[in-house]
Design goal:
By secondary structure, the protein is an alpha+beta fold. It has six helices and 16 strands.
Length: 400
Protein backbone atom coordinates (compact mmCIF):
# COMPACT_ATOMS: atom_id res chain seq x y z
CA UNK A 1 0.00 0.00 0.00
CA UNK A 2 1.15 3.53 -0.70
CA UNK A 3 -0.07 5.03 2.64
CA UNK A 4 2.35 2.95 4.76
CA UNK A 5 5.22 5.04 6.16
CA UNK A 6 8.43 3.22 7.04
CA UNK A 7 10.58 4.76 9.79
CA UNK A 8 14.21 4.25 8.86
CA UNK A 9 15.66 5.93 11.99
CA UNK A 10 18.75 4.22 13.44
CA UNK A 11 18.13 2.54 16.85
CA UNK A 12 20.57 3.97 19.36
CA UNK A 13 21.76 1.87 22.33
CA UNK A 14 19.95 2.52 25.60
CA UNK A 15 21.79 4.99 27.80
CA UNK A 16 22.87 3.49 31.15
CA UNK A 17 23.52 5.64 34.19
CA UNK A 18 27.15 5.18 35.17
CA UNK A 19 27.90 4.19 38.75
CA UNK A 20 30.93 5.35 40.79
CA UNK A 21 34.13 3.42 40.16
CA UNK A 22 33.99 -0.11 41.67
CA UNK A 23 30.28 0.04 42.62
CA UNK A 24 28.47 -0.74 39.37
CA UNK A 25 28.32 -3.71 36.99
CA UNK A 26 31.90 -5.00 36.41
CA UNK A 27 31.16 -5.43 32.66
CA UNK A 28 29.53 -2.08 31.73
CA UNK A 29 30.01 0.06 34.83
CA UNK A 30 26.34 1.06 35.13
CA UNK A 31 24.04 1.02 38.15
CA UNK A 32 22.51 -2.40 38.90
CA UNK A 33 19.01 -2.48 40.36
CA UNK A 34 17.52 -5.36 42.37
CA UNK A 35 15.16 -6.55 39.59
CA UNK A 36 18.06 -7.29 37.20
CA UNK A 37 20.79 -8.29 39.63
CA UNK A 38 23.05 -11.35 39.26
CA UNK A 39 25.74 -11.96 41.91
CA UNK A 40 29.25 -13.34 41.40
CA UNK A 41 32.51 -12.67 43.23
CA UNK A 42 30.50 -10.59 45.72
CA UNK A 43 29.59 -8.05 43.01
CA UNK A 44 26.34 -7.39 41.13
CA UNK A 45 26.03 -7.85 37.33
CA UNK A 46 23.20 -6.95 34.94
CA UNK A 47 21.39 -10.03 33.61
CA UNK A 48 22.37 -8.96 30.09
CA UNK A 49 26.04 -8.56 31.16
CA UNK A 50 26.20 -11.88 33.04
CA UNK A 51 28.06 -13.67 30.23
CA UNK A 52 31.18 -15.76 29.79
CA UNK A 53 34.24 -13.55 29.33
CA UNK A 54 35.50 -15.83 26.54
CA UNK A 55 32.55 -17.10 24.45
CA UNK A 56 29.86 -14.62 25.69
CA UNK A 57 27.49 -17.48 26.61
CA UNK A 58 24.66 -16.46 28.96
CA UNK A 59 25.35 -17.69 32.51
CA UNK A 60 23.38 -18.37 35.66
CA UNK A 61 24.20 -19.33 39.27
CA UNK A 62 24.61 -23.02 38.29
CA UNK A 63 27.14 -22.83 35.46
CA UNK A 64 29.07 -19.66 36.34
CA UNK A 65 32.74 -20.11 37.24
CA UNK A 66 34.87 -17.36 38.75
CA UNK A 67 38.34 -17.04 37.27
CA UNK A 68 41.51 -15.83 38.98
CA UNK A 69 41.56 -12.82 36.63
CA UNK A 70 38.42 -11.41 38.33
CA UNK A 71 36.19 -12.31 35.37
CA UNK A 72 33.44 -14.94 35.01
CA UNK A 73 33.41 -17.90 32.58
CA UNK A 74 31.32 -20.90 31.64
CA UNK A 75 32.75 -24.23 32.79
CA UNK A 76 34.13 -25.16 29.36
CA UNK A 77 36.01 -21.90 28.87
CA UNK A 78 37.26 -21.98 32.47
CA UNK A 79 38.66 -25.45 31.84
CA UNK A 80 40.35 -24.30 28.60
CA UNK A 81 41.86 -21.21 30.15
CA UNK A 82 42.73 -22.29 33.71
CA UNK A 83 42.27 -26.07 33.84
CA UNK A 84 45.09 -28.65 33.57
CA UNK A 85 46.71 -28.81 30.12
CA UNK A 86 48.83 -31.32 28.30
CA UNK A 87 48.66 -34.81 26.88
CA UNK A 88 45.33 -36.47 27.70
CA UNK A 89 43.41 -33.32 28.76
CA UNK A 90 41.12 -32.95 25.72
CA UNK A 91 37.57 -31.59 25.58
CA UNK A 92 35.89 -34.55 27.25
CA UNK A 93 37.36 -37.02 24.74
CA UNK A 94 39.57 -40.01 25.36
CA UNK A 95 43.35 -39.98 25.38
CA UNK A 96 44.63 -37.71 22.63
CA UNK A 97 47.17 -38.94 20.14
CA UNK A 98 50.08 -36.66 19.44
CA UNK A 99 52.07 -36.72 16.22
CA UNK A 100 55.24 -36.31 18.22
CA UNK A 101 54.73 -39.78 19.68
CA UNK A 102 55.21 -41.53 16.35
CA UNK A 103 58.16 -39.31 15.48
CA UNK A 104 60.23 -39.35 18.67
CA UNK A 105 58.56 -42.19 20.62
CA UNK A 106 57.99 -39.91 23.62
CA UNK A 107 54.80 -38.31 24.91
CA UNK A 108 54.78 -34.54 25.23
CA UNK A 109 55.41 -33.08 28.66
CA UNK A 110 52.44 -32.48 30.96
CA UNK A 111 51.92 -28.90 32.08
CA UNK A 112 51.64 -28.73 35.89
CA UNK A 113 49.43 -25.92 37.14
CA UNK A 114 51.16 -23.81 39.77
CA UNK A 115 48.42 -23.28 42.38
CA UNK A 116 50.70 -20.98 44.37
CA UNK A 117 51.16 -18.45 41.54
CA UNK A 118 48.54 -16.14 43.11
CA UNK A 119 49.60 -15.74 46.73
CA UNK A 120 46.98 -15.17 49.42
CA UNK A 121 47.30 -13.09 52.56
CA UNK A 122 49.09 -14.94 55.39
CA UNK A 123 46.72 -17.46 57.03
CA UNK A 124 43.97 -17.10 54.38
CA UNK A 125 45.16 -19.29 51.49
CA UNK A 126 45.70 -23.00 50.97
CA UNK A 127 47.62 -24.38 54.00
CA UNK A 128 49.78 -26.57 51.75
CA UNK A 129 50.91 -24.08 49.05
CA UNK A 130 49.73 -20.67 50.32
CA UNK A 131 47.89 -19.78 47.10
CA UNK A 132 44.43 -18.27 46.72
CA UNK A 133 41.67 -20.92 46.70
CA UNK A 134 38.75 -20.25 44.32
CA UNK A 135 35.28 -21.74 44.72
CA UNK A 136 35.59 -24.18 41.78
CA UNK A 137 38.53 -25.99 43.38
CA UNK A 138 37.81 -25.56 47.11
CA UNK A 139 37.92 -28.40 49.66
CA UNK A 140 37.25 -27.61 53.33
CA UNK A 141 38.97 -29.24 56.31
CA UNK A 142 38.99 -27.88 59.86
CA UNK A 143 37.32 -24.70 58.53
CA UNK A 144 40.26 -23.95 56.20
CA UNK A 145 40.06 -23.99 52.35
CA UNK A 146 42.45 -26.27 50.38
CA UNK A 147 43.07 -26.77 46.65
CA UNK A 148 41.78 -30.16 45.43
CA UNK A 149 45.28 -30.78 44.09
CA UNK A 150 46.85 -30.02 47.48
CA UNK A 151 44.34 -31.99 49.59
CA UNK A 152 46.58 -35.05 49.99
CA UNK A 153 48.06 -37.04 52.85
CA UNK A 154 51.16 -35.32 54.19
CA UNK A 155 53.14 -38.58 54.32
CA UNK A 156 52.02 -40.88 51.47
CA UNK A 157 50.47 -38.16 49.21
CA UNK A 158 47.28 -40.18 48.76
CA UNK A 159 44.39 -38.05 47.46
CA UNK A 160 41.86 -37.45 50.27
CA UNK A 161 38.18 -36.61 50.63
CA UNK A 162 35.95 -35.63 53.57
CA UNK A 163 35.50 -39.31 54.62
CA UNK A 164 39.08 -40.56 54.83
CA UNK A 165 40.84 -37.33 55.84
CA UNK A 166 42.15 -37.09 59.42
CA UNK A 167 43.21 -33.76 60.97
CA UNK A 168 46.52 -34.18 62.78
CA UNK A 169 47.66 -32.20 65.83
CA UNK A 170 50.31 -30.55 63.60
CA UNK A 171 47.46 -28.81 61.65
CA UNK A 172 48.07 -31.00 58.57
CA UNK A 173 45.90 -33.72 56.98
CA UNK A 174 46.60 -37.47 56.77
CA UNK A 175 44.93 -40.63 55.51
CA UNK A 176 43.73 -42.99 58.24
CA UNK A 177 46.70 -45.36 57.85
CA UNK A 178 49.36 -42.64 58.12
CA UNK A 179 47.47 -40.99 61.00
CA UNK A 180 47.49 -44.31 62.85
CA UNK A 181 51.21 -44.81 62.20
CA UNK A 182 52.17 -41.31 63.28
CA UNK A 183 49.71 -40.49 66.08
CA UNK A 184 48.02 -43.78 67.01
CA UNK A 185 49.16 -46.24 69.73
CA UNK A 186 52.59 -47.79 69.07
CA UNK A 187 54.45 -50.77 70.41
CA UNK A 188 54.42 -54.54 70.40
CA UNK A 189 51.20 -55.84 68.81
CA UNK A 190 50.14 -52.52 67.23
CA UNK A 191 51.05 -53.41 63.66
CA UNK A 192 48.95 -52.16 60.74
CA UNK A 193 46.12 -54.66 61.05
CA UNK A 194 48.34 -57.70 61.65
CA UNK A 195 47.53 -60.39 64.16
CA UNK A 196 49.57 -61.50 67.14
CA UNK A 197 53.29 -61.41 66.36
CA UNK A 198 55.30 -64.64 66.64
CA UNK A 199 58.81 -64.45 68.09
CA UNK A 200 60.59 -67.80 67.89
CA UNK A 201 63.74 -68.39 69.91
CA UNK A 202 63.68 -65.11 71.82
CA UNK A 203 63.38 -64.73 75.57
CA UNK A 204 61.08 -62.19 77.20
CA UNK A 205 64.06 -59.97 78.12
CA UNK A 206 65.32 -59.92 74.51
CA UNK A 207 61.85 -59.07 73.24
CA UNK A 208 61.57 -56.23 75.75
CA UNK A 209 64.93 -54.79 74.69
CA UNK A 210 64.05 -54.85 70.97
CA UNK A 211 60.49 -53.68 71.43
CA UNK A 212 59.93 -50.24 69.87
CA UNK A 213 57.42 -48.85 72.31
CA UNK A 214 56.25 -45.28 71.97
CA UNK A 215 54.16 -43.62 74.63
CA UNK A 216 52.47 -40.62 72.99
CA UNK A 217 52.76 -37.42 74.99
CA UNK A 218 49.19 -36.13 75.12
CA UNK A 219 50.33 -32.95 76.90
CA UNK A 220 52.67 -31.84 74.09
CA UNK A 221 50.00 -29.42 72.77
CA UNK A 222 48.54 -27.55 75.73
CA UNK A 223 44.93 -26.37 75.58
CA UNK A 224 43.47 -23.20 77.07
CA UNK A 225 42.61 -23.53 80.79
CA UNK A 226 39.38 -25.48 81.21
CA UNK A 227 39.19 -26.58 77.54
CA UNK A 228 41.59 -29.54 77.36
CA UNK A 229 41.60 -33.06 78.75
CA UNK A 230 40.73 -32.94 82.50
CA UNK A 231 43.37 -35.61 83.25
CA UNK A 232 46.43 -34.21 81.42
CA UNK A 233 45.41 -30.73 80.22
CA UNK A 234 46.39 -31.38 76.57
CA UNK A 235 44.36 -30.48 73.48
CA UNK A 236 41.87 -33.19 72.45
CA UNK A 237 41.41 -33.82 68.70
CA UNK A 238 38.36 -35.48 67.11
CA UNK A 239 40.04 -38.82 66.34
CA UNK A 240 40.77 -39.51 70.02
CA UNK A 241 37.85 -37.81 71.77
CA UNK A 242 35.81 -39.28 74.64
CA UNK A 243 32.98 -37.29 76.23
CA UNK A 244 31.97 -37.34 79.90
CA UNK A 245 30.02 -34.71 81.86
CA UNK A 246 30.37 -32.27 78.91
CA UNK A 247 34.18 -32.50 79.03
CA UNK A 248 36.49 -34.01 76.41
CA UNK A 249 39.07 -36.67 77.34
CA UNK A 250 41.82 -38.46 75.43
CA UNK A 251 41.09 -42.15 74.88
CA UNK A 252 44.38 -42.87 76.65
CA UNK A 253 43.38 -40.75 79.68
CA UNK A 254 39.79 -42.03 79.88
CA UNK A 255 40.37 -44.61 82.62
CA UNK A 256 39.36 -45.09 86.24
CA UNK A 257 41.14 -42.63 88.53
CA UNK A 258 41.48 -45.36 91.18
CA UNK A 259 42.27 -48.67 89.43
CA UNK A 260 43.16 -47.23 85.96
CA UNK A 261 40.81 -49.62 84.17
CA UNK A 262 40.01 -48.38 80.61
CA UNK A 263 36.44 -47.02 80.44
CA UNK A 264 33.78 -46.32 77.85
CA UNK A 265 30.41 -44.57 77.90
CA UNK A 266 28.68 -47.58 79.52
CA UNK A 267 31.21 -48.18 82.31
CA UNK A 268 32.21 -44.65 83.34
CA UNK A 269 30.73 -43.04 86.46
CA UNK A 270 31.20 -39.30 87.06
CA UNK A 271 32.26 -38.73 90.65
CA UNK A 272 31.74 -35.63 92.78
CA UNK A 273 35.55 -35.12 92.66
CA UNK A 274 35.21 -34.27 88.89
CA UNK A 275 37.00 -37.53 88.01
CA UNK A 276 35.73 -40.67 86.26
CA UNK A 277 35.60 -44.06 87.96
CA UNK A 278 34.54 -47.59 87.16
CA UNK A 279 31.38 -48.77 88.94
CA UNK A 280 33.23 -50.80 91.57
CA UNK A 281 35.56 -47.95 92.56
CA UNK A 282 32.66 -45.46 92.51
CA UNK A 283 30.74 -47.66 94.95
CA UNK A 284 33.78 -48.00 97.23
CA UNK A 285 34.46 -44.26 97.26
CA UNK A 286 31.00 -42.69 97.17
CA UNK A 287 28.48 -45.48 97.79
CA UNK A 288 26.81 -46.27 101.16
CA UNK A 289 29.19 -47.67 103.77
CA UNK A 290 28.81 -49.65 106.97
CA UNK A 291 27.63 -53.03 108.20
CA UNK A 292 26.10 -55.00 105.34
CA UNK A 293 27.48 -52.77 102.56
CA UNK A 294 30.75 -54.62 102.07
CA UNK A 295 31.83 -56.93 99.26
CA UNK A 296 31.07 -59.97 101.41
CA UNK A 297 27.86 -61.73 102.52
CA UNK A 298 25.87 -60.21 105.37
CA UNK A 299 27.55 -60.92 108.71
CA UNK A 300 25.67 -62.80 111.44
CA UNK A 301 26.30 -62.28 115.15
CA UNK A 302 27.07 -65.56 116.99
CA UNK A 303 26.93 -64.09 120.49
CA UNK A 304 23.17 -63.72 120.49
CA UNK A 305 23.35 -59.91 120.36
CA UNK A 306 21.06 -58.14 117.94
CA UNK A 307 22.68 -57.00 114.74
CA UNK A 308 23.40 -53.30 114.74
CA UNK A 309 21.30 -51.51 112.13
CA UNK A 310 23.23 -48.92 110.19
CA UNK A 311 21.45 -45.86 108.86
CA UNK A 312 23.06 -45.24 105.46
CA UNK A 313 21.98 -41.63 105.28
CA UNK A 314 24.84 -39.12 105.31
CA UNK A 315 25.47 -37.34 108.59
CA UNK A 316 28.67 -35.47 107.81
CA UNK A 317 29.99 -33.11 105.18
CA UNK A 318 28.49 -29.91 103.83
CA UNK A 319 24.81 -29.78 103.01
CA UNK A 320 23.56 -28.75 99.58
CA UNK A 321 22.17 -25.32 98.82
CA UNK A 322 18.47 -24.89 99.71
CA UNK A 323 16.31 -26.54 97.05
CA UNK A 324 19.21 -28.40 95.41
CA UNK A 325 19.78 -31.37 97.73
CA UNK A 326 17.78 -34.38 98.86
CA UNK A 327 14.27 -33.43 100.04
CA UNK A 328 14.54 -35.84 102.97
CA UNK A 329 18.08 -35.30 104.36
CA UNK A 330 19.34 -32.12 102.62
CA UNK A 331 22.69 -33.55 101.46
CA UNK A 332 23.91 -33.46 97.79
CA UNK A 333 22.50 -36.11 95.44
CA UNK A 334 24.74 -37.53 92.68
CA UNK A 335 23.51 -39.02 89.41
CA UNK A 336 24.22 -42.66 90.35
CA UNK A 337 21.85 -42.55 93.34
CA UNK A 338 19.19 -40.08 92.20
CA UNK A 339 15.41 -40.59 92.39
CA UNK A 340 13.09 -37.88 91.05
CA UNK A 341 9.56 -36.94 92.08
CA UNK A 342 7.36 -33.86 91.69
CA UNK A 343 8.54 -32.70 95.10
CA UNK A 344 12.23 -32.78 94.14
CA UNK A 345 15.17 -35.19 94.10
CA UNK A 346 15.92 -37.89 96.70
CA UNK A 347 18.66 -40.38 97.47
CA UNK A 348 17.64 -43.96 96.66
CA UNK A 349 17.94 -44.75 100.39
CA UNK A 350 15.77 -41.72 101.30
CA UNK A 351 13.09 -42.50 98.69
CA UNK A 352 10.67 -44.12 101.19
CA UNK A 353 7.18 -43.51 102.57
CA UNK A 354 7.12 -40.64 105.07
CA UNK A 355 4.78 -42.56 107.42
CA UNK A 356 5.65 -46.26 107.31
CA UNK A 357 9.20 -46.03 105.89
CA UNK A 358 8.47 -48.48 103.05
CA UNK A 359 10.92 -48.23 100.13
CA UNK A 360 9.32 -46.71 97.05
CA UNK A 361 9.96 -46.55 93.31
CA UNK A 362 8.43 -44.69 90.38
CA UNK A 363 5.45 -47.08 90.17
CA UNK A 364 4.13 -46.89 93.74
CA UNK A 365 5.14 -43.47 95.06
CA UNK A 366 2.53 -40.75 95.60
CA UNK A 367 3.35 -37.03 95.82
CA UNK A 368 1.43 -35.39 98.63
CA UNK A 369 0.39 -31.73 98.93
CA UNK A 370 2.74 -31.29 101.91
CA UNK A 371 5.82 -31.92 99.70
CA UNK A 372 6.45 -35.47 101.03
CA UNK A 373 6.07 -38.87 99.33
CA UNK A 374 3.91 -41.77 100.55
CA UNK A 375 2.97 -45.30 99.61
CA UNK A 376 -0.61 -45.72 98.35
CA UNK A 377 -1.97 -46.92 101.66
CA UNK A 378 -0.53 -44.08 103.72
CA UNK A 379 -1.52 -41.54 101.06
CA UNK A 380 -5.12 -42.78 101.23
CA UNK A 381 -5.19 -42.57 105.04
CA UNK A 382 -3.75 -39.05 105.13
CA UNK A 383 -5.21 -37.36 102.07
CA UNK A 384 -7.91 -39.67 100.69
CA UNK A 385 -11.69 -39.24 101.22
CA UNK A 386 -12.89 -40.06 104.76
CA UNK A 387 -16.16 -41.13 106.29
CA UNK A 388 -18.66 -43.97 106.07
CA UNK A 389 -17.78 -46.36 103.25
CA UNK A 390 -14.16 -45.20 102.82
CA UNK A 391 -12.42 -47.85 104.93
CA UNK A 392 -9.05 -49.46 104.20
CA UNK A 393 -10.10 -51.92 101.53
CA UNK A 394 -13.25 -53.12 103.38
CA UNK A 395 -16.68 -53.23 101.84
CA UNK A 396 -19.28 -50.56 102.41
CA UNK A 397 -19.60 -49.87 106.12
CA UNK A 398 -22.96 -49.41 107.74
CA UNK A 399 -23.65 -47.42 110.87
CA UNK A 400 -25.43 -49.25 113.69
Amino acid sequence: RDDIVINRAVLLPKAIAKAPEGEGCPKCGGFVYAAEQMLARGRAFHKSCFKCGECSKRLDSVNVTEGPDKDIYCKVCYGKKFGPKGYGYGQGGGTLQSDTVSISGQAPKITVIDTACIKAAPGEGCPRCGGVVFAAEEVLAKGRPWHRKCFKCHDCHKTLDSIIACDGPDRDVYCKTCYGKKWGPHGYGFACGSGFLQTDGLTEDEISQNRQFYNPDTTSIKAAPGQGCPRCGGAVFAAEQQLAKETMWHKKCFNCAECHRPLDSTLACDGPDKEVHCRACYAKLFGPKGFGFGHSPTLVSTGGAATAIHDPRPNSGSRAAPGHGCRRCGYPVYAAEQMVSKSGIFHKRCFSCSDCGRSLDSTNQNDAPNGEIYCRGCYGRNFGPKGVGFGMGAGTLTMA
